[in-house]
Amino acid sequence: MIPLGEAQRFVLELCAPLPPRSVPVQEALGCVMSTDVVATEPVPSFANSSMDGFAVRADDTAGAPVDLQVIGAVMAGHVLEATVGPGQAVRIMTGAPLPAGADAVCMIEETSTDESGGTVTIQRQLRPGNFVRQPGRDVAVGDVVAPAGTLLTPAHLGVLANQGVGRVLTYSRPKVGVLSTGDELFSGSGPLPPGKIRDANRPTLLALCRREGWDCVDLGVVGDDEATLVEVLLRGAATCDAILTSGGVSVGDLDLVRVVLEKLSGGTMRWMQVAIRPAKPFAFGILASSGTPVFGLPGNPVSAMVSFELFVRPAIRALSGHRSLHRPVVRASTAHPLERQRDGKLHLLRARVNVDDHGDWRVSTTDGQESHQLRSMAEANALILLPDGLGVPELGDVRVLLLDADSLDEGGGTIDDRLSTENS
Ligand code: AMP
Ligand code: MG
After folding, report:
1. Taking the complete model, does pTM exceed 0.85, yes or no?
2. Do residues 353 and 402 make contact, with C-beta atoms less than 8 angstroms apart?
3. Is the CB of 182 under 6 A from ligand 1?
4. For 308-357, what is each residue's pLDDT tens digit?
5. Rounded to whole angstroms, how far apart are CA atoms 110 and 124?
6. For 141-156, how does the pLDDT look when each residue is reduced to its tens digit (9 = 90+)?
7. Does the beta carbon of 373 sit less than 6 angstroms from any atom of ligand 1?
8. Domain annotation for the chain: domains and CATH numbers
9. What three-state secondary structure class fits 252?
């Protein structure tokens, strides 16, 4: 057996980022920048009001309350060709350009106007700059707004839109092919024929890929037949940046993925017994004809998923140019004892983790920890990393790999409810 870290490093060393390409900004969500974007426009591009109110000269408000003469009004999107002189004010809306001569805004709530609207009383003294958004205070010309390596989020798309950027250079979004192997797999509808099982891995793995934002190709089910497996792998390699197989990497008679991968990878394939449970067997190689990485995941559904999390996800994130490859690991205390025997392996236990009202992470295992028991994976949002040894007692300290932060139980209620619980 080899340590998990060694297996992960072996894979990552062979996964360099895919070539960059130019994509429209609106299609770049989730892509990783391959070059810097430098701001060419200041944001805001002109001084404007952050409030509905009156644009004034701050000096005029020294003896507030003061009466000022209203010489006009300016709405967002328009420019007022007038200069605010001493003793004068301009009615202004949020986002409207500050007229010449004015250097501050008094919010409407702190003013009153006479019936004609010709005079405004400013209730309080202002300092220059009050309620004015100065040019370049969000982004200055020359700022790097999206450095190479940035994972583009919705906010980045807005920041790029603010620059009038239409296209960006990002690492390509990977296209991942997924196939299942095994004579026992039945993919039709209707009752299962004797001895057959339904294919759980392909839908699961395709969905894991989709959730990562990768393009995926369903390469179907392949029986335990060497020639067909070769044909499907090569067909997949013609369009995909990476291929995931499941099954056929153990030590059984018909474990053909290992055999075929050995041949197609020019002997560079590595078949590993990783010191983890589940997901011990794993094969990884690069197809000699196309350079396509192939991940030979174990057949048991939970093993396939765990192997995906530990090997496939970090590696394909590397292909996508990500700098942060691995899932976050947090410290949590266990709701119950975790027993285990020494076997030289890191155990990854399916679990639910949550943050309690005090901000502490609590974790408990989900039922059924055998590698064919997929339902307990469906109930899990994390994997407890239980090192070799004899386990930990109740309330013991463990490390937990977060699989799905979206499925943390938030306890219900509004943010206000939650804040009042924490304060009480
Ligand atoms: P293998 O490594 O091919 O011997 O498969 C290990 C175990 O996983 C066997 O019990 C297989 O029947 C099962 N298995 C393999 N592929 C799948 C699949 N696509 N869906 C569900 N179970 C599978
Ligand atoms: Mg098999």
Report:
1. yes
2. yes
3. yes
4. 999 999 999 999 999 999 999 999 999 999 999 999 999 999 999 999 88
5. 7
6. 999 999 999 999 999 9
7. no
8. 4-17+173-319 (3.40.980.10), 26-42+139-171 (3.90.105.10), 48-133 (2.170.190.11), 329-398+405-423 (2.40.340.10)
9. coil
